[in-house]
């Protein structure tokens, strides 16, 4: 667990990032903010449609 009091039992940040990528199905290229002011809405739509 990420909040385990024992630092040795916490996952590495790379593991956390990999798990989040699996959950959201978004790679770094799709998670980069775009110029569009509607980027957050677009991100929500993409993450909802990927599920």
Automatic annotation (TrEMBL):
It is a single-pass membrane protein; Single-pass type I membrane protein. It is found in: Endomembrane system; Membrane. Keywords: Membrane, Signal, Transmembrane, Transmembrane helix. It comes from Aegilops tauschii subsp. strangulata (Goatgrass). The keyword Chaperone does not apply. One of its GO terms (cellular component) is membrane. Signal peptide: none annotated. This is Protein kinase domain-containing protein.
């Amino acid at each position: 667990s990420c909040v385990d009091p024992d630092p040795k039992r916490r996952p590495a940040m790379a593991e956390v990032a990999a798990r989040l990528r699996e959950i959201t199905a978004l790679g770094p290229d799709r998670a980069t903010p775009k110029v569009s002011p509607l980027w957050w809405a677009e991100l929500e739509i993409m993450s909802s449609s990927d599920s």
